[in-house]
Design brief:
Two copies of one chain form a homodimer. Chain A is mainly alpha-helical. Chain A is built from seven helices and three strands, in the order ααβααββααα. The first copy, chain A, is 63% helix and 8% strand. The interface between A and B is large, with 71 and 71 residues. Chain B binds a DNA duplex through α1, α2, α3 and α4.
Chain lengths: 152, 152
DNA sequence: CCACATTTAGTTGTGCACAACTCAATCGTG
DNA sequence: CACGATTGAGTTGTGCACAACTAAATGTGG
């Protein structure tokens, strides 16, 4: 084992990414607990607050999540009284999701969350913007790549 | 809704982080499938390959995972024949984990994984190092922060 | 109009994450 | 030594992620 070993854990940017993502989710937890939301549920609410009634398909595209994740999540949000779901009259395949009054009321209480999180990251506005740019580019790049085991 | 709305999804660095982390895990999937590992199992194997026999506690510290995650994961790695677990003679509370011959043999086949992933990110060595530095700092900063709902 | 392909949600099964808990082994202090 | 506190691993329960599948609604070419 040398310091330049390709498999060394601390050299892996992917572990840093995995680790940072979990750490930030933990940062949200106490804030979102107070709102009765998990982090993925909060992301769904962000889309609904921003866009109004949205189909499951469009939520999936916005968050890059499939129906296997969204269907049970939305069911939980519905039983918590945050959202309503109804089949579209014009296309019975689609289900439109919208916030309830309770869900809409939550928006005010959630207003301070992003700023609180941003402060806790210790990054300034420029640092946050730069990090977001790098990560967005990274997501797009790897999203287009289809690796197979052959490359090994 | 204005373009400067604090809750706008596309302005959230945290979503970018969450999204990038999942995208990169997806990038690993075909490579690790060929090795019979999941991404968290691969991380455990990296630690074992690097450090040799390691207790569950030390694995947890290296990967920032608790026993609730590691215990079942290690049980699956054990039934896959990749690792062995045994109570330490000097302290029966600790369980030491080590790779089997099969697990050790996997290391050679895994050698190309980091480079393959690095290429697929589209980032050069400097970009990867810089991203890793930012993320590591971020993880450390938020790890020290204890938020409560009071700040809202 | 009709057979077949496509689209959209939902279901099932596996494997993390993580909080909260249990239990046994060990440590520390009087 | 006694005994309460601490440590280390494991268990239980909830909620994502995601692959693979099902089923119903809609689109489409002949």
């Amino acid at each position: 084992m040398t310091r330049t070993d390709e498999l060394q854990l601390d050299r892996q940017v992917c572990f840093a990414l995995y680790s940072a993502s979990r750490a930030v989710t933990q940062l949200y937890r106490p804030l979102l607990d107070a709102l009765g939301l998990t982090y993925p549920q909060y992301l769904v609410m962000l889309v609904l607050w921003e866009h109004g009634p949205t189909t499951v398909k469009d939520l999936g595209e916005a968050l890059e999540l499939d129906s296997g994740t969204l269907s049970p999540l939305l069911k939980r949000l519905e039983s918590a009284g945050m959202v309503l779901r109804r089949r579209r009259a014009t296309d019975e395949r689609s289900v439109e999701v919208d916030v309830t009054e309770k869900g809409a009321a939550l928006r005010t209480r959630a207003a301070g969350v992003p700023r609180t999180i941003a402060c806790a990251t210790g990054l300034d506005a420029a640092g946050l913007t730069e990090l977001r740019r790098i990560l967005t580019t990274l997501t797009e790049t790897v999203g287009e790549t289809q690796l197979t085991a052959d490359v090994l």
